[in-house]
Amino acid sequence: MNHLQVRLGGTRLVILYRDRVYKIGRIRPIKVILKCFAIVVLIEHYFRLQTHWGGSNLAVALTRYFLAGIWSNRLEYQYWIESQDTRVAEVFSSHFGGLLLVQKRYGEVKDHTIYSLHGSAVKLYRAADSELEKASQFGRRLSNRAVIIDYGSRLTIQALRST
Description:
single chain; alpha+beta; Transferase(Phosphotransferase), domain 1; 2 domains; 5-stranded antiparallel sheet; 3-stranded antiparallel sheet; about 20% strand
């Protein structure tokens, strides 16, 4: 776990180094422009945007969509500080308004190994009310218990709060 790894996710650049994970939020200007065109053509894109990104109006939802990585970092930080939930990855710090998030690093989980893990976090894997659809969104503690490492979405946090 001492070597450096860099991964590019949908909304964040993730740097894994030693026992830490550094998540750097990305902005998405081109995707926002395309989403605006999609909303004009199909109203269902508007409802999907509102469901996923929330907000009181379209401007708030589009702003959150534009700042998706920073928004995800802020959600993870707030949820960890408020709950100290053992089902999710521990957050050490957040910097620059959510641009950078520092988390504890856990063992890697693959598709074929996720069901061998223990703990209540696994119950949220592919649950209808969360966005935990990939094994890579989970980590493994030394005790072979699952921990959610990618929980920066509104729907996933709602699922965590309700269980």
